[in-house]
């Protein structure tokens, strides 16, 4: 599943540079996550880096976009291929 940022976001700017897939961007009011780019850091790290640095714990699993570990790995591999 991709992650999502809740409206508890304080726009502290620490999550965006931590995302290895450039999935996090500044939305109209708070930071948001492109679900098609979010792999929960699968392929890069053991844990989602944005969640690790968020001071208010407002980055959660998006239950509306379920993905298995294998699907996240596949998404990561496709994103890496596209960078070539």
UniProtKB/TrEMBL annotation:
Residue intervals of the 4Fe-4S ferredoxin-type domain: 1-29
The organism sits in which domain of life?
Answer: Bacteria
- Matches recorded under Pfam families: Fer4
Keyword check for Ribonucleoprotein, yes or no. Answer: no
Where are the coiled-coil regions?
A: none
Q: Which UniProt keywords apply?
A: 4Fe-4S, Iron, Iron-sulfur, Metal-binding
Q: Which InterPro entries match?
A: 4Fe4S_Fe-S-bd, 4Fe4S_Fe_S_CS, PSI_iron-sulfur_center, YfhL-like
Return the protein name: YfhL family 4Fe-4S dicluster ferredoxin
State the organism's lineage.
Bacteria, Pseudomonadati, Pseudomonadota, Betaproteobacteria, Neisseriales
